Amino acid sequence: MPYAAGGRATPELLDRLSIERERVEGRIAEPVGTRGRPDSVITGATGNLRTGRPCRAGIS
């Protein structure tokens, strides 16, 4: 990760930090987007277990 060598920030450093933040955000977005899928499956399976009704296909 970029840092302020010598304790001084520059416009270039701020640009590099912004790019790094965007890169990190991109790497975080996919797992966060995927996080709800298991919850959806668990909810459907729990409903099936309790009611005997089939799980609904295509629910995410």
From TrEMBL:
Q: Where is this region: Disordered?
A: 28-60
Q: What is this protein called?
A: Uncharacterized protein
Q: What is the lineage of its organism?
A: Bacteria, Bacillati, Actinomycetota, Actinomycetes, Kitasatosporales
